[in-house]
Every structure is written in C-alpha cells, then in structure tokens.
Amino acid sequence: MKQAISKTFSFADPLKLAIQMTKYNLKIVFANRFIYFFIAALALFLLIAAIFLFSSSATIKTSDIYGMLLLPGILILFYPVIYGLQNDKDARMLEMLFGVPNYRYKVYLLRYVISLLVMAAALLLMATIALLAIMQFPLFEVVYQLLYPLVFLSAVAFLMTTLVKNASGSAVVMILLGLIFWVLSENLRFSKWNIFINPFDVPTDMSYSVFKNVLYQNRLMMVIGTVVSILWSLLNLQKREEYV
C-alpha cells in the first residue's frame, strides 16, 4: 500500500514542475526582442560612461553613476514586463498555462519575479563595469537604491498591461507616463513625489536629516504603490482569457 502511494505521489514532483516552469518562463523572458533591449541598455550605459570619461570638465560622483544606470535599467525591464503576457499567445502555450491550477497567480507572478531578477543582475553587471572602469563607489548601495524606482515602474507597467490588455498599447501608455515623470522630475527634484530623486545628490540648501526624511517617504510611497499595483494586476489576471 505504501509503495503504491509513493508511486502516485512524490515530493520531487512539485520541485520538478517548478524547475520546468522556471525554464519555460526564462525562455519567454529572453525570447524574441528582449536581447535587443538588453544590448541597447548596455550600449546606452557605455555611451553615457564614455561621455563622462572623455569630458575634461566633468567630475564624476556617485550621484552620476546612479543616473548612468537608471535609464538602462528602465530599458531592461521594459520588454519582459510589458510583453510577457502576450508572449504566451505568440508561443502557442496557452493550453499548458490553462492546465496549471491558479495559473494567473503562479505563472505570471513567477515571470514578473524572473524579470526583476534579470534586471537586478544586469544592473550589477553594469555597476561592476563602472566600478572597475570609472570610480570607486558603494556598488550594492547604488543598485539597491535603483531598485526602488525600477521595481515601482515595472509594477506600474505590469498593471497597465493587465488594464490595456494589449502589449503595444501598454508600451505607448508607459512611454507617455515615463515622459511625464521625467519632465516633472526637474521641478520636483528634491520632492518626495519625484520617483527619479537621486539619493546620492544631497541638496546644498537642505539639511541632510530633512533630505533623508524626504527620501524615506519617497521610498515608502513607491513600495506601497508597487504592492498595490501587483495585487491589482493579479486581480485583473482573473479575466486573462478575455484578452489572450
């Protein structure tokens, strides 16, 4: 009797299924045009770094390294987050996903996490290049601070994808939102409402303790916005069949 039960159920089965699903979703994340976004992000970072290096009047600081990595990070997360939902239809894998219990929460949340891990690894790679080629700076602190705006933007992009129900339309919406945030960032430079606030660029007309408090409120709001966006996205994925 025990042997029969062990044949029908094995503790290794969930692990094997998880590994198989991770491998498949890694293929989705790296499929089609993602590699071009990664190459473009790396090329953009190298271009910005070269401009700073060959500019005789520029004194590179940690705040500059933060700015160098911000835009490439946005490019890296752009494709896998926005086009991840549509790629199942393109890859003809819907039958497989529909066979997974609560697939909306497990598969797409897993894919979103994979996208963030890929982005974090790419940021570490570019930050390491900057550390070796440009200047010494707190590498992990810079990458950690970059994750706040990048994870927030990725969560908003994930939400827009589930609301617009079309990858190309979501991309247009996110580009417009990104431009609005970018334009407002100059007027809101040291405001808690500026998602692009540079934590390493301390204003001269503001005390350090006040700036740290502004930065704390800024990060807290982005964490809350990220959690709300992800939960809202997962709720919208209950009607995934309507736009797949």
Task: Give a written overview of the molecule.
With 244 residues, the chain is mainly alpha-helical. Helix content is 75%, strand content 0%. It is built from 10 helices and no strands. The longest helix has 31 residues, at 103-133. Mean pLDDT is 77; it is low at 1-9 and 94-99.
Brief descriptors of the model:
244 residues, single chain, mainly alpha, 75% helix
Radius of gyration: 21 Å
Mean pLDDT: 77
Number of continuous helical runs: 10
- N- to C-terminal separation? 44 Å
Low-confidence stretches: 1-9, 94-99
- Helix content range of the residues, please? over 70%
Largest sheet: none
Beta content comes to under 5%
Categorize the overall geometry: globular
The string of secondary-structure elements, in order, is: HHHHHHHHHH
The tally of beta strands, per DSSP, is 0
Layout: helices, strands, pairs:
Elements (H helix, E strand, L loop, with lengths): L1 H7 L3 H18 L4 H20 L8 H22 L3 H5 L2 H5 L4 H31 L5 H26 L2 H21 L20 H29 L8
Helix pairs in contact: 2-7, 3-4, 4-7, 4-8, 7-8, 8-9, 8-10
Short description:
The chain contains ten helices and no strands. The chain is mainly α and 244 residues long.
